[in-house]
Structures are given as structure tokens and as C-alpha cells.
Specification:
The chain is built from nine helices and nine strands. The chain is of the alpha/beta class. Strand 3, helix 4 and strand 4 form a beta-alpha-beta unit. The longest helix is centred in the last third of the chain and has 15 residues. It is globular.
């Protein structure tokens, strides 16, 4: 199975990406277990976390076949190969760098660039993006997403990221959001695996 198909299958099961910004390698597996137990299938370790590739490698090994693991805040094309070598298959960015997107697509990896405008969205699609991250969602509205959905290809998924909480998802979903990236409302530095699991359960319940 290709990495893209594996991502699509995981996304269909739970369209929520857990963003573990600041997580440390010695705690990441316990937090990952809590997320997977709650139903999460997509986990991101941002590259500006401590030893991010170590965390990606640990997650990729532990959750092989159970969750898709990737790196976030990937800003340079040379980081794509480093993430792939660590076992990560998702390349997530806050911006739409065509070189990063193209390098991800060429390696058969999932590319999730950040976009804020239709111009960025179409450029990212042309470069080979798998799905699009509307970021920062705090600077947009469900109305903005709905307007983008009207012009983007029907099968191109759009995921709001930034400031999303369980009680704010419904308007985005009604506007056409395919899923979400979840940051500090799910995980922030200092939370225990149990606390992350409780937060994760609230997000999964809010989807139903």
C-alpha cells in the first residue's frame, strides 16, 4: 500500500491530526498510545520540538499499521528526506513552499502545506499537495473556507488548523472542512498522557 493510500484510509477513520509541538522523545510514546486509544490515526511532531526526528522514529516504530506519523513545521526540502529516513510519511508545513511540496510528492509522501489564500491553495495543488491546511484558522472564518471550497477541486481536502476546540468544529464542518489539525487544545508541554487522552476523547466525541 502506498503512503498516500495509507493516509487516506487513516484519515477516513479519524480526520484529526494531533500536533505535538514541544513533545520530548522520552514521553512521546505514552502520549501516542493515549491518542491512538482515543481513536486518533494521524500524529505530527513539529520540527521545532526537542529531537523531533527521534520522536518521529519512536512513533513510527511503535504504531506501524495503527497510525500515520509525520513531521510538522517542515520548512526546507532537505528536511523531507530526514523525516522519511526516520519513518515519517506525512510532511506538514505552515506555508506552501513548492520545493517542499514537490520533494514530498516525489518521495511518495503525504504533503500537507499551509495555505491562507486561494492563490496559495492552487499553487500548492499544482506542486503536488495531498491535502491543504488552512492556517492560521484564527485569521479565517468558516465563510472563508466555504468560499474556497466553491472553487477548489471537490476532492481536495481542506483542514483548518489553529485555535480549534471541540466546541468550535461544527461551523467549520458545515462549511466543508474535511478534518482538523489540533494543537494546544489537545496537547501542550507539561500535559500527562492521561490528560492528552482525555482531550483526545473530547475531540473524537465532538466529531460524532
Amino acid at each position: 500500500m502506498s503512503h498516500i493510500q495509507a493516509f487516506n484510509d487513516a484519515f477516513a477513520r479519524c480526520p484529526l491530526i494531533a500536533i505535538l509541538r514541544g513533545v520530548k522523545p522520552d514521553e512521546v510514546e505514552g502520549i501516542g498510545e493515549a491518542l491512538v486509544d482515543a481513536g486518533f490515526t494521524l500524529i505530527e511532531v513539529p520540527m521545532n520540538s526537542p529531537d523531533p526526528l527521534d520522536s518521529v522514529a519512536r512513533l513510527a516504530k511503535r504504531f506501524e499499521g495503527r497510525a500515520i506519523i509525520g513531521a510538522g513545521t517542515v520548512l526546507h526540502a532537505d528536511q523531507v528526506e530526514a523525516v522519511r529516513a526516520a519513518g515519517g510519511t506525512m510532511i506538514i508545513s505552515p506555508n506552501a513552499n513548492p520545493q517542499v511540496i514537490a520533494a514530498s510528492a516525489a518521495a511518495g509522501l503525504v504533503s500537507l502545506p499551509g495555505i491562507a489564500t486561494p492563490t496559495e491553495a492552487f499553487a500548492a495543488i499544482d506542486a503536488g499537495a495531498t491535502a491543504l491546511k488552512l492556517f492560521p484558522a484564527e485569521a479565517a472564518t468558516p465563510g472563508v473556507l466555504k468560499a474556497m471550497r466553491a472553487v477548489l477541486p471537490k476532492d481536495m481536502r481542506l483542514l483548518p488548523v489553529g485555535g480549534i476546540a471541540p466546541d468550535t468544529m461544527d461551523p467549520w464542518l458545515a462549511a466543508g472542512a474535511a478534518g482538523f489539525g489540533l494543537g494546544s487544545a489537545l496537547y501542550k508541554i507539561g500535559l500527562t498522557a492521561e490528560q492528552v487522552g482525555t482531550n483526545a476523547q473530547a475531540f473524537v466525541a465532538a466529531l460524532k
